Amino acid sequence: MDTVETLLFIVTRKEYVAGAGLPPSHEDDNYIRRAVPLGKLMNAFRVFFSPEGELFAVRSGDVYRGPMPSEQGLEWFSVAKKVGKVDWGNFRFILFDPNGVLYAVTGKGDFYKGPAPTNENMPWLYRQATKIGSGMWNSLRALFFDPQGILYAVKSDGRLVKRNPPTDPKDDWFATCIPVGNENWLKFTHFMAFSPDGSFWCVKDDPGYMYKWSPQAVHSNFAQKDAQSMGWGYNAGLFFAFTCDKIISSIESLEFLPDDGKIVSQGPSVLKKQTYINTSDAPLKYMFTVSETVTSSSTFSQEHGFTVEVGAELTFKAGVPFIAETEAKISINLSTSHTWNFTKSNEIKVKEQNLDLSK
């Protein structure tokens, strides 16, 4: 995969159908119609992506994570991993910064940050997150990051402001944030986000027009008059989010480079033991010969950030360490980390040695 395309992800209001496609490029580019159905996120309450393209979603107070859905009709929650429970339905905003740090605003107005959750039995809010703000954060109408990690917000009066995210509760973000123009943005908060190229996108609530500001317009405080219309009908989407195209249906080839590998661990191994008892006063001389079979084990672990379609297969051909000429075919699942172990026995004959054993 030479390039990674930016995708616009959607969950529809009707039946919670998930879909994705390239963002619209002009007003007549009907994204809603051409987005590819990818599955369902039934009763999802929040949807957000990590910078690596992993999907997170909240339902009934619990949070789940997993690869972006890739099978039409499949209920994503049935294959995703639950990594948090109860508290997640109480957050007003949940979002990642470009470095993968998770930020969340509680219903009481407190602002927290921490690592992405991995264990449903580990309370993220009380055990992993750090409080960095309090008071007014639940009054915001929108909250999002740009690709450089600057935090943007739409305040309750409609003003758009920005600043680096706060670092602790004493950091008065609201008193030091910078206004972006002087226009009212309240009607544009159905969806507000930056795409990875630095363009700014939003959806106006009624009748669902989508607008785009180029990176050049953003640098000039992106006045609303500078927006490019991307069509209408986007109020059909309950959630929108930008992510990257990392879905593959098959792997054509995979090359091992043993010469570039390294030994990560090694230790002694006893091949054979024999006890000699010398009851005389003369040195004992004995020919010791050993021929043993040792097992060499090689592990290939592929860490990747793409999603593998259900049922996709990967065929290994000649050139894989410790594998004979015959092919080995393996089915792979939805995981983003795949490990295959191959083992072949090799006989190693130790050279004959004269051992001079003295009493």
TrEMBL record:
InterPro entries: Natterin_C, Tachylectin2, Tachylectin2_sf. Residues 20-235 form the Tachylectin domain. It comes from the Eukaryota. Gene3D superfamilies: 2.20.25.510, Proaerolysin, chain A, domain 3 (2.170.15.10), Tachylectin-2-like (2.20.25.650). PANTHER family: NATTERIN-3-LIKE, NATTERIN-4. This is Tachylectin 2 domain-containing protein. It comes from Pelobates cultripes.
